[in-house]
Each structure stands twice: as structure tokens, then as C-alpha cells.
Design brief:
This protein has twelve helices and no strands. The chain is mainly α and 270 residues long.
């Protein structure tokens, strides 16, 4: 499953947010949607994220009751936590509480922009801090070089070691500054696909159709979305559209449901 970012990229942003909080940076949000005090946002996020990963761990092990408890606690701590809503909606879906599942998948999607903005802003602050640290190191290295010319042989050795240490730290900072910014993603295809499944269970077929179409638009290789869309066409007796959907999927290299295709072809032959 995709989260706000790919897992490795998301972990980078989470670490940055926690680092900024621990450094005690004093700044205020200028972006839209950031209506809370910034330190409270970071504190809530840090606490909520730890709770979320406990819930996710239980979820992946199939301990859904324990996962549900932790995910609800995460949302109580930070109501905007996108992934907590997404995982909770899946548990509710498994429990056949489709109306509640719908509420949480919609909240996950509604809060996506807020969380993306939070990660982006945190990264900007992180880069700013790195540049400040680089400037401080430049200043210290410059002063040490000035001392070097008037230093005794013993002092020179010590000063050169200090310069080397600061140059090493500076190189680490430069490497971090040169790292490309992980791209911010739009809402992942899986969110639309799952949203479609919830609508399908609620027998809201037109709404399900729209969600599957969006999932395929975002990810043209989303096999499950193609198969479910084809099945939806099949159920509503749009057999040619169902076949076209499966053929398009196969043209994109996507594995389709052979039994479904067989059933569609049999009807069209008649």
C-alpha cells in the first residue's frame, strides 16, 4: 500500500519533522490549512505516528482488534492522520461496517492535502537549518585558518585537526543539501480503488465506477481496479464495456480475471 509518500521517502520526512521539533525551531506556518500552533502540530504528529505504527504492526499480523484500538487512539491524538483513517477503514470494511468504512476513507482523502503540506513545510525548515549550519561552519573554519598562520607547530597540528573535522561535517551537510527532494504525491490510486470497493458494497455503483476510473487514471497498471471495473460493467449488463476494459488492462500488461473474461465472451457470443 502507498502512503502519502513511498515508505522510504515518508520515513525521511517523519525523521525531519521530529528533528525540527527536537531542535526547538521557532517559526510559524504561513501556508493555508495550518491553523494550529506549530509546536502542537509537531508534538501531536510525533505522538500519533508512534501510536499509528503500533496499530499498523497489529494490522499486518492480522490482529485487527488490537490494530483498531491503536488506530482510533492515533486519530484521537491527531484527527488529520491520513494513514490511520485508511487502515481503520480497511478494518471496518473487513467487519462489514461499510458506512463507517466510507466515513474513514473519505476523511483520509480529505486530510491528504493538510498532511502533504505539513511534510513539505517541515522539509523546507530542515533545508534552512542545514544552510544555517553550513554558514556557521564556514565562519568557524575561517577563524581557525586565521589562527593557523600565527600558531606554534604544536598548535598548528591541533588547529588543522579541528579544521578537518569541521570540513568533514560540512561535506555531510552539502551531501544532504544536494539530495533531491522526494516528490510529493497526490492521493494514491489505492485510496480511490478502496473507496470504490466501499461504494460497491453499499450498492452505490455509479460512485464506485467513478472511483475505479480515478484509480486507473492515476495508475494505468492497477489490475484490481481494472478487474473490479469490468465486473461492475458485467453486473450492470454492459458486457462490451466490460470486455473493452479487460482488453485495455491486458494491453497495459495487467493480469485480468480469466473467469470473468470467459463469462463476458460467452454472453457476447450469444
Amino acid at each position: 500500500m502507498k502512503g502519502i509518500y513511498k515508505l522510504a521517502e515518508k520515513q525521511i520526512f517523519i525523521s525531519l519533522i521530529v528533528s525540527i521539533l527536537l531542535l526547538g525551531t521557532d517559526f510559524s506556518f504561513g501556508q493555508k490549512h495550518f491553523y494550529m500552533d506549530e509546536k502542537k502540530i509537531y508534538e501531536k504528529f510525533k505522538i500519533a505516528e508512534a501510536i499509528f505504527y503500533k496499530g499498523k504492526k497489529h494490522f499486518l499480523k492480522g490482529n485487527y482488534k488490537k490494530a483498531e484500538k491503536e488506530l482510533k487512539k492515533c486519530i484521537e491524538t491527531m484527527p488529520e492522520h491520513v494513514e490511520a483513517h485508511f487502515y481503520l477503514s480497511q478494518i471496518l470494511y473487513k467487519n462489514e461496517d461499510f458506512q463507517k468504512a466510507l466515513e474513514h476513507i473519505e476523511k483520509a482523502k480529505a486530510n491528504f492535502e493538510f498532511m502533504t503540506g505539513l511534510f513539505a513545510y517541515a522539509y523546507e525548515q530542515y533545508i534552512s537549518q542545514l544552510r544555517e549550519q553550513e554558514d556557521i561552519l564556514d565562519s568557524k573554519i575561517s577563524k581557525l585558518r586565521e589562527k593557523l598562520s600565527a600558531a606554534s607547530p604544536e598548535e598548528k597540528s591541533m588547529i588543522e585537526a579541528q579544521i578537518d573535522a569541521r570540513e568533514t561535517t560540512k561535506n555531510v551537510i552539502r551531501n544532504r543539501l544536494n539530495e533531491p527532494l522526494p516528490p510529493l504525491e497526490s492521493i494514491p490510486a489505492d485510496y480511490f480503488y478502496f473507496h470504490g470497493n466501499v461504494f460497491f458494497k453499499l450498492k452505490k455503483y455509479q460512485e464506485a465506477y467513478a472511483q475505479y476510473i480515478k484509480a486507473i487514471k492515476i495508475n494505468p497498471n492497477h489490475g484490481n481496479a481494472y478487474n473490479n471495473l469490468a465486473n461492475l460493467y458485467y453486473m450492470t449488463k454492459q458486457h462490451q464495456k466490460a470486455l473493452d476494459c479487460l482488453n485495455k488492462a491486458e494491453a497495459n500488461g495487467v493480469k485480468t480475471n480469466p473467469e470473468l473474461k470467459k463469462a463476458i465472451l460467452k454472453i457476447l457470443e450469444k
